[in-house]
Structure formats: C-alpha cells, structure tokens
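Hi Y.,

Following your request, here is the sequence exactly as I used it, all 229 residues.
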Amino acid sequence: MFEKKLLADIVEWDIYTWSKGILYWNATIDRLFENLDKRVVLDLGARNGGTSLFFATKGLNCICSDLKGPSEQARKLHKRYDVLGLIRYECVDCTSIDYPDNTFDIVAFKSVMGSVGANNNFDNINNAFDEIHRVLKPGGTLLFCENLQGVFLHMFLRKKFAKWASAWNYLSLDYMNQAMARFSDHSLHTYGFFNCMIQDNKAINWFDHKLCQRINPKNQYMCYGHAQK
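Below is the corresponding structure, written out as tokens. Let me know if you'd prefer a different format.
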C-alpha cells in the first residue's frame, strides 16, 4: 500500500478518485509482469511527473514524456524521491510516437486524451491509440486513466469553473470501449461522482463509494483500466 503523501504526489489532484486508477495499475503490473527492472515504460503526457514517479518507485525504467517535454517540477519531484536514475525526459507527441514498432513493455497515460482530442478532434485520439498499440511489444500493456463525460452537471461545472474545459474532449464510456477494441483484451472500470465538485472530503468520499456501486457507469466521470496487445 502507498503512503498517503506518495499517492498524493503521484495523483496530483482529486486524490481519492484518481488513486483508484493508480492502485489498479499497481495490482495489474504485479499480476502481469516479473523482473520489473528489465521493463521499460513510456509515460505519455506526464507533465509534472506524478505517474512517472509511480513507475520509478516500482523499479521500472520510465520515459517521462510530454508534447513539449515534462516540467521542471517533474525533475524536482523525482529528485526528492531519489529515482532520477530510472527516468529519462523526452518530448513525445502521442499521435506520432518516434519509436519503432514493438518497443515498450508498458505505455501509460492519465488524463491525456481529452487534451489530445481538444475541440472534438477524434482523429487525433484515434491516431494516439493506434500509435500506442504500434509501439507496445506483443503482450505489452496499456495502463490508462481518463476523464469521462459523466452527467450534465459534471460538464456544466467543468465548463463554468475550468478555463480549459471548453476545449477539452470529455469522452464517453462507449467511445473508450470502442478504442480498446484494437487490443486483444482489456478491462475498463469507472469511478467518481461528487468528488468532481468537492474533492477529497471524507463525507463526499463516503457518498461516492456508496453511490458508484449503484449508479450507471456512464454517469461516473473517470475511467481506468488496462489493455493488452
């Protein structure tokens, strides 16, 4: 189990909701892979380095990437946890990944496709998923967490309080399932309802835990899972 501070540094925001995805990633890696020190991860859209920190603390070699390169904050974070030796920093466009076919054991992203497909550019998102599939080794694994549309209230509040939300492409659960069809196998889960409005409050966490067991997955605002090539 992760210490609270480490999990917060990995997830960065809305810790309670998005940590569901990170804990799922952790269990999936432990189930699917052995000799982790020999595995290489391409972490897409890593920006401030939280998800790359997760992989490095597991002993995985990780490329921490973003379209224009990760932030200086990422390097500071990784230095603080003494994992710089396991991480490389690169500029990577996930719609055109400059690596050969069958390169990586794991490709990962967290809250990336909505930006890649900004202003309803689904061609960009489809290209990104094609590229991810291409650079994964046979049997390799995609780990993902992504924003979903949720219900009307989620979309209304996002657009009202987040400047970037008007361009962000919030995906439907149906679309995510369609995107996974290019892989040989996948598992997709959803979570989150009230935390989109009031984050990391114990009472809200409790309500989300109860509610998300009962409501339609399409009404939840975050999905996470894995897919295998």
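The chain has nine helices and seven strands.

Thanks again,
Q.
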